[in-house]
UniProtKB/TrEMBL annotation:
SUPFAM superfamilies: S-adenosyl-L-methionine-dependent methyltransferases
Keyword Methyltransferase applies: yes
InterPro entries: Methyltransf_11 (IPR013216), SAM-dependent_MTases_sf (IPR029063)
GO molecular function: polyprenyldihydroxybenzoate methyltransferase activity
Domain Methyltransferase type: 109-199
Organism in which the protein naturally occurs: Candidatus Scalindua brodae
GO biological process: methylation
Swiss-Prot/TrEMBL keywords: Methyltransferase, Transferase
Listed name of the protein: Dihydroxyhexaprenylbenzoate methyltransferase
Length: 312
């Protein structure tokens, strides 16, 4: 790879399924990237899809080190944290959903807030909002340029007292953990009794079906979306959630009233050009409609997973 300055970023680690601890899995796909053959596998017991083996902390340190990775040298360690106006429509949709469940002035923590775009938007919905992120650079940028009330800290070691928040949000965060349970446990600690957790994460069921049954038309997908692979990002997304496994993980972490929500045309990523955008809206309507009709997790092809759960 042209941007790799060293032969390998380091070793990968074999781990059991974080939900059920099983080692028994079937192969979904192999993605060759950054000099590794990343294996995406599906647990035969609980059906969690994950990257296994996954990057070790040594691999990640090397990946983000400009001395080893030319992307980081060119764009900086935290290029992914730049504020994205494109996410604002999604933020409004999520905040409207939360507003319908919580009173004005509710205390909100956005865990994995990057530069705090969601936190600032939440203030306009009368939430008393703060954010927390593991990136010191992102937190410093958000404080300086967006005047956002942000704190530095890992999701599994939050710098807040017990029962400090009425609601915690995690947007595009859960998929980055190879084991989400330390973070979910920590979020339970900082939530007040009956506090709400909201998680938004990509829905990987369509891509799983694609790999399993539609492999032959993968080149068509790649041509239409101008991508070389399906969006597994297996070096960065270490767990690939479906509504079934997400709700199971939340229940396993001790949350109750775990449910998913449908939001019309929900999309948190960058916008598409016109023909593709029309196709996306059509797909989104079909996905939402099919789920409303059947309520079956095995037919849940909604464009993203949006789940809420309540602390017991
Ligand atoms: Zn499992």
């Amino acid at each position: 790879m042209r941007f790799m300055k060293i032969h390998s970023f380091g070793p990968l680690e074999e781990k059991p399924c974080p939900i059920c601890q099983s080692d028994d899995s079937s192969l979904v796909t192999v993605e060759p990237v950054f000099g590794e053959d990343f294996h995406v596998v599906r647990c035969r017991n609980c059906r969690l899809i994950r990257t296994n083996p996954s990057p070790s902390s040594e691999w990640k340190d090397c990946f983000y080190d400009p001395a080893c990775n030319g992307i980081m040298a060119a764009q900086g360690r935290d290029f992914v944290y730049l504020p994205s106006e494109q996410r604002h429509p999604a933020y409004h949709s999520i905040l409207k959903l939360l507003k319908s469940k919580l009173p004005a002035g509710a205390r909100l923590l956005d865990a994995g807030c990057a530069v705090g775009g969601f936190v600032k938007t939440a203030e306009n919905y009368s939430f008393e909002a703060v954010g927390c992120d593991y990136s010191e650079t992102a937190v410093a940028y958000g404080k300086q340029h967006c005047n956002a009330p942000l704190f530095h800290g890992q999701a599994d070691c939050l710098p807040f007292d017990d029962a400090s928040f009425d609601v915690v949000t995690m947007l595009e965060v859960l998929e980055h953990f190879s084991d989400p349970f330390p973070a979910l446990e920590e979020i339970r600690r900082v939530l007040c009794p009956s506090g709400t957790l909201l998680i938004e994460t990509p829905n990987y069921l369509p891509y799983y079906y694609f790999e399993r049954y539609l492999k032959k038309i993968k080149p068509l997908y790649c041509k239409a979306t101008n991508k070389q692979h399906l969006p597994w990002y297996p070096f960065d997304h270490l767990t690939h959630w479906t509504s079934e496994t997400l709700l199971r993980a939340l229940a396993t972490a001790g949350f109750k009233q775990c449910i998913t929500h449908s939001i019309k045309n929900f999309r948190i990523d960058t916008p598409m050009d016109r023909p593709l955008s029309r196709l996306f809206r059509l797909y989104s309507s079909v996905g939402n409609g099919l789920y409303q009709l059947t309520k079956m997790a095995s037919l849940d092809f909604r464009t993203a997973l949006i789940a809420t759960a309540v602390k017991q």
